[in-house]
Amino acid sequence: xxxxxxxxxxxxxxxxxxxxxxxxxxxxxxxxxxxxxxxxxxxxxxxxxxxxxxxxxxxxxxxxxxxxxxxxxxxxxxxxxxxxxxxxxxxxxxxxxxxxxxxxxxxxxxxxxxxxxxxxxxxxxxxxxxxxxxxxxxxxxxxxxxxxxxxxxxxxxxxxxxxxxxxxxxxxxxxxxxxxxxxxxxxxxxxxxxxxxxxxxxxxxxxxxxxxxxxxxxxxxxxxxxxxxxxxxxxxxxxxxxxxxxxxxxxxxxxxxxxxxxxxxxxxxxxxxxxxxxxxxxxxxxxxxxxxxxxxxxxxxxxxxxxxxxxxxxxxxxxxxxxxxxxxxxxxxxxxxxxxxxxxxxxxxxxxxxxxxxxxxxxxxxxxxxxxxxxxxxxxxxxxxxxxxxxxxxxxxxxxxxxxxxxxxxxxxxxxxxxxxxxxxxxxxxxxxxxxxxxxxxxxxxxxxxxxxxxxxxxxxxxxxxxxxxxxxxxxxxxxxxxxxxxxxxxxxxxxxxxxxxxxxxxxxxxxxxxxxxxxxxxxxxxxxxxxxxxxxxxxxxxxxxxxxxxxxxxxxxxxxxxxxxxxxxxxxxxxxxxxxxxxxxxxxxxxxxxxxxxxxxxxxxxxxxxxxxxxxxxxxxxxxxxxxxxxxxxxxxxxxxxxxxxxxxxxxxxxxxxxxx
Length: 662
Description:
Largest sheet: 5 strands, antiparallel
Distance between the termini: 8 Å
CATH architecture of the domain at 4-21 and 346-655: 7 Propeller
CATH class of the domain at 4-21 and 346-655: Mainly Beta
Mean pLDDT: 86
Radius of gyration: 26 Å
CATH topology of the domain at 4-21 and 346-655: Methylamine Dehydrogenase, Chain H
Number of helices: 1
Shape: globular
């Protein structure tokens, strides 16, 4: 359906805005212009589940929903999927099922997803084995003292349990009305006819899984593996060092009882194969891992993390973890080969497009580049120094040099990483002098440096109580630290305007601070109650602030030292991207994003200077959000960076078409 939104005249001359990104897949609008093309990859977030349904392969994540593999490439399969945080993919009643953190969705693998009106509560890496089929019921582990089952008509049947956060469920062989329920150190048996639970056993450490092998029911815990029906409490197997992170049985019947044990911790583990004997396990050896080195993060990230899903089919095993998808291969299943294809686990934060390259800053991976003329997937080059692994948040490009703002995980200070397009040199230097990276008052996680800017020198703003305004003066090269508001929640809303520096905050008293060239505060402009500005742009001799208020995304313009609202929409939780077409001053584009996992973001265009807006969200690959829009003057092209997975390049003619989505 076409939606036209009326609003007061918004600037025609808008420059570009910024913030969070990442996701890429091809879209097919019904417009006659040249079809958009995708740059980047098709991933984002932790890879939570792998599944095959009716001959097709599907992959899920906790931030990007579900992808379907077509011709060797992952493409979004999210139409109708209202929650992009997927815990598990499965099939039930001849339908493809996506179990999200709060809703069950079903699909036939061709058409859109349909929500089942049942509220659930799961979460990846906590609800490790969230679903089983018990007879004609599908049962889901909850984090609210419940096992929630549905029949083939999706009628709900609830069972109370003593465990609040259920880690997993396991069927009882030969007993269609009984179900093992485990969480923490406890294992219970749920008798579904009576609805009663009874404690089976408590273990010295938390239960990981319940593999069945060679007729034996095992219980894997963090510190040992037990045979459930053994007469004694002695572990069947104990690791000599570290903890058991994952444990699952093999599928090869000709090898007898084979079990795979991952040892280490959540972020680094090694996988071993064992055979089952009467006395315990015989170690067959460590499983070799072959990583796909085309991916930029594989330059440093060469460890297996905790497996989030193990999928078995036709004597084959596929595994997903936080960083990739793998298949057990080789004559003895002695090789774990990465088969992630073009689904790279990253969430991007900013974009810059030069004449030669596309630069992307990301969370976790850092700073990467790709040749603009490259037609091959996975040709991103990692530019992040090894010592600075963490989150890159913002970029600037001056004099053939790209500068990225970086907040490492393991260091309190923020850093600048610089890349020269002339000699391809990469350098880094410390920007701040902090002793800790406290989370108190920070917008997301620990306090991060959100925005990089240039005003008589490089500066940045770091949120959180130990953050503030950090400025590297041209005159003395000294770091100047100024607090902006009580929690320094500036994010991206900072801009030079008429020779002064304007910095908007959404602290307890939201508003705009104004500084002179000496970084002395000269005024404060109060913002409307509840308005949280995320970014700012100059246009028509004024400043436009984009942000959230209540459940709406809103735009305000600065007039006579007051903020006046010019646009509001319930889509998304904040505006992150706003741009004007330099070649047609009456053409504006505004995009929303969302911090939740809901598919609520949108993209609007105006062809009348901002008097009315048209919903052209069909041009997006999914509704997770847009974080950056760059219109290349003279090329007739626009680059749209989405919150997860990559970006889209299309003609400005298509973007601003009134019929793009009809």
